[in-house]
Write a structure and sequence with these properties.
binds magnesium ion; elongated; binds guanosine-5'-triphosphate; 8-stranded antiparallel β-sheet; alpha+beta; 19 helices; 6-stranded mixed β-sheet
Length: 579
């Protein structure tokens, strides 16, 4: 398993010299680092263990102004190598770095009491004892980068610590946080970082977040050697053709497209070093990025981090919260939560079993595919968890949501039936407007679907109070023959037409079904005889006024009996069949 070791410790306590003594590589390569004799940026070197295993080593700066860089270097590591100067003992950044390691969940490592050559034996013994007291769970090894004393013991201790590191999640989608970007002649833009999950291979398409840009991997290297595929936990260099160096920076995430959500909010379990007051403005360190944020608290140890820029995160990720100093940290419960904080939901997520996780994440319908990354469960566990919610097609949702939706749909259909007894249905588009899940959910709702409309089960249109108006209208139509009658009650007209009791014309006029048939036969016969019919001719034949003749002909056009050509009409197929 690929493991990464990160140095930690106060400025000048001998981290970089120790890295050089262990690996032969001077990681202080910037001119300013060499001039000032301090580390400013992150340095990287491979470290061989006595058993042949190879660790990646990240050297971090100790200066208090560069703690943010230390956090960026420490986020992907599995083991720490804490340097404490034998003469100076523990100093402020010794403690702050230790806190950060703790907050990031880095529990395994070794303490090196450095510059052993520069102090007498008693002082060294005391320094070792103090270091042991400070970090009781780690082995403490006195070393000298200058003389080489203790280096073998240190390597052996690192190997033992590496043995204790738990398995990293091997599967999952590719996710890497960029820590360096540079240009290589003949190769182009290269980014490096620790692969947090998944794997990376030549030819893969990835997305750079938060910019959202798709990139193609041209080649992958691990420790300066090309590999076909890099695995989770490895430090990798990825070359990305067609991308300018200035389009990428430390803090960017390189991820498998579609596998992670981008979010301006993170719900976390807080770990506080001191009290973090509600509404506190902090810097959130996540991956290799640092983002301004506000802490919205809920319950006694939950919070939502409202971020100034979006991040790609996953459940279980660690964050560090800082202002001038490190205030605390957190473990991500939901990487893309709703804005409203709900401690009960977060408690479910904190329990961490598949069914609690799925219950907490699912309320309104979400696509199953989108849930995989958010729940961070493997396929089997996700399947177990899904038993706790409802599922239809590609969508999952809570029973509670379904009950609420059913109740609201029922209520709206009842209201509709009361206000429009002639047409008690509602268009589906109106009932579940624009929802992609509508088709999957509809069969589970208490509705009858008839054509484009939904009805309460068994609901039928009823004339109710309008029965009398309908009877009067029908009497009038029976006496009117082919003449049109005005009917301003559009709903009534539509209803009676649906029942075959009248035919609607334009402008709110209607005609009796018998009248309509007579008009149609007149038109069809005339056309059969003379090939066409003009408005004036139809008016003469039917004996109605010009307006009514016009309305009747237009309706015949609509019904496909005739086609209008200028001011004449000819039969269409339906007209021929009507004979
Ligand atoms: N005598 C002695 N001096 C050492 C040893 N290791 C480092 N030093 C001295 O300590 C100075 C700082 O060492 P570095 O390794 O650069 O310290 P660092 O912890 O990397 O410092 P930052 O990266 O700036 O935090 C060096 O310039 C040396 O003068 C050692 O083993 N013996
Ligand atoms: Mg250094």
């Amino acid at each position: 398993m690929a493991l990464t070791v990160g140095t930690a410790g106060h400025i000048d306590h001998g981290k970089t010299w120790l890295v050089r003594a262990l690996t032969g590589k001077d990681t202080d390569r910037l001119p300013e680092e060499q001039r000032r004799g301090i580390s400013i940026d992150l340095g990287y070197a491979p470290l061989e263990l006595p058993d042949g295993r190879r660790l990646s080593l990240v050297d971090v700066p100790g200066h208090e102004r560069f703690v943010r860089t230390m956090v960026a270097g420490a986020t992907g590591i599995d083991l720490f190598l804490l340097a404490i100067d034998a003469a100076e003992g523990s100093r402020p950044q010794t403690l702050e770095h230790l806190s950060i390691l703790w907050l990031l969940g880095v529990r395994q490592g070794v303490v090196a009491v450095t510059k052993a050559d520069s102090v007498d034996e008693d002082t060294l013994e005391l320094a070792v004892a103090e270091a042991q007291e400070l970090v009781p769970e780690a082995e403490v090894v006195p070393v000298s980068a200058k003389t080489g004393a203790g280096l073998d013991e240190l390597r052996a201790a690192l190997a033992r610590a590496a043995d204790r590191v738990g398995e990293r999640r091997a599967g999952g989608a590719a996710r890497l946080y960029v820590d360096r970007v540079f240009t290589l002649r003949g190769i182009g833009t290269v980014v490096t970082g620790t692969l947090w999950s998944g794997s990376l291979a030549e030819g893969d398409t990835l997305r750079v977040e938060p910019a959202g840009r798709e990139v193609r991997v041209r080649s992958v290297q691990v420790h300066d050697a090309p590999v076909e595929r890099a695995e989770a936990g490895q430090r990798v260099a990825v070359s990305l053709p067609g991308v300018e160096r200035r389009d990428l920076r430390r803090g960017d995430a390189l991820v498998a497209p579609g596998a992670f959500t981008l979010s301006y909010r993170l719900d976390v379990v807080l770990e506080e070093l001191g009290e973090i007051e509600a509404g506190a403005r902090v810097s959130v360190h996540h991956g290799t990025s640092r983002i301004p944020a506000r802490v919205v608290r809920a319950g006694d140890h939950y919070a939502q981090l409202r971020l100034g820029e979006p991040v790609v995160a996953a459940r279980g990720d660690r964050v560090v919260l800082r202002r001038e100093t490190t205030l605390g940290g957190g473990t991500v419960l939901d990487p893309a939560p709703p804005r409203r904080l709900d401690p009960a939901r977060l408690a479910l997520l904190e329990r961490g079993d598949p069914s609690s996780i799925v219950q907490a994440l699912v309320r309104e319908p979400v696509p199953v595919a989108g849930l995989t990354a958010r729940a961070l469960l493997d396929a089997d566990a996700l399947e177990d968890g899904l038993a706790a919610v409802r599922r239809s097609g590609d969508w999952v949702f809570s029973q509670e949501w379904l009950d609420e939706t059913a109740a609201s749909v029922e209520e709206r259909l009842c209201e509709r039936a009361a206000s429009s007894p002639l047409d008690p249905g509602l268009a589906l588009a109106e009932l579940l407007p624009g929802e992609a899940w509508a088709a999957a959910i509809l069969p589970l709702l208490p509705v009858d679907r008839r054509g484009p409309k939904a009805y309460l089960p068994g609901a039928a249109a009823a004339l109710g109070e309008r029965a009398e108006a309908a009877a009067a209208l029908e009497r009038e139509l029976a006496g009117a023959g082919l003449a049109a009658v005005k009917c301003p009650d559009v709903e009534l007209a539509r209803f009676l037409e649906g029942e075959g009791r009248l035919v609607r014309l334009g402008d709110g006029f209607v005609v009796g079904p018998g009248g309509y048939e007579v008009a149609r036969d007149l038109v069809v016969q005339e056309c059969r005889a003379g090939g066409e019919i003009a408005l004036a001719r139809f008016r003469d034949l039917s004996g109605v006024g010009r307006r009514d003749a016009q309305l009747l002909l237009e309706r015949l056009d609509q019904d496909g009996v005739t086609r209008r050509i200028g001011d004449r009409r000819v039969l269409r197929r339906a007209g021929l069949e009507a004979l």
